[in-house]
Structures are given as structure tokens and as C-alpha cells.
Amino acid sequence: MLLTNHTLTGVALGLAIDNPAVLAPTAVASHLVLDAVPHFGYDPIKGKLEAPLFKVFGVLDFTASSIVTLAACLAWPHRALNILIGVIGADLPDLTYIPVVLFTRARIERWFPFYRPMLTFLTRIQWYEKPSGLITEVVWASLMLWLLQGRL
């Protein structure tokens, strides 16, 4: 799932859940559930995260996610802390791929022995990442935007 969709979900959860102790694990769980749904994506284990097109797409998605987060915090300043907790929780599993892009996998695994099993788990739950999964992405983004629009 695109990071922007996880962010939209985190915003919605941040607006709906008052207790941060409930919000944080719920947001992380939402990420895992969304990644288990067929979606658009790129297989980080089989593919090359270093590919220039992947990096450009990732930067654009991260930028959109950051803009959504900022806009939500400005639209609902009284809920900004919960929004940030929801967004960080909902985005956290994808943010664990950043070291793979920045460093060699061997170096990361030397520093953090749990890293490979974690990436393997995160990749296995994403059983369907294809271009046709973009339909799911658009439907989910539309649903989240519709829900958020009702909160204004």
C-alpha cells in the first residue's frame, strides 16, 4: 500500500481514537491489515530498492504523505498529537525500509540481527503487489478522503 494511504488511515484513526495507548498499536495493526490487501507496490526482497525509478516514486509518495500529515494537523490542531501518533504508527512498518535504501543490507543485518526476519515478515504479508492493485489504492484513498471530509 502506498505510504500516503497508510498516512490517511493514521489521520482517520488519530481523529477517531482518544487514547494514545490504544491508538498506537491500532495504527500499526492497520498498516499490516492494509498490506495484506491486494495493492500496488514493489517487492523489496525480490526487486532492487536502489532502482532510480523506485527512489523517485518513494520520494513523491513520502512527500505526499508529509503534506497530508501537515494539512491534517493544521485542519484539526486540537487533535494534532493524536494525528501524529496515528500517522507514525500507520507508517512505521514502511519506514523500516529506509535503511535498505540508504545502506547495504549486509551492514544493516550486522548492526540489527532482527532486521532480516522483520523484513521477511513485512514482505510475506504483501502477497499481491501488482500494477492492477492501483485500483485498491484509489478506492482506499477515496474512502479515507470521504471519511475525513465528513470531519471538517
Estimate the helix proportion, in percent.
Answer: over 70%
Largest sheet: none
Figure out the total of helices: 8
Tally the beta strands. 0
Describe the global form: globular
- Total domains, how many? 1
Rg for CA atoms: 16 Å
What is the H-and-E element order?
A: HHHHHHHH
Overall pLDDT confidence: 89
Topology:
Layout: H1 3-16, H2 20-36, H3 52-75, H4 80-95, H5 98-102, H6 105-111, H7 115-124, H8 134-149
List keywords for this structure.
0% strand; globular; mainly alpha; 152 residues
What does this protein structure show overall?
By secondary structure, this protein is mostly helical. It has one domain (3-149). The chain contains eight helices and no strands. Helix 1 (3-16) packs parallel to helix 8 and helix 2 runs parallel beside helix 4 (80-95). The mean pLDDT is 89.
Concise summary:
By secondary structure, this protein is mostly helical. The chain is 72% helix and 0% strand. The radius of gyration is 16 Å and the shape is globular.
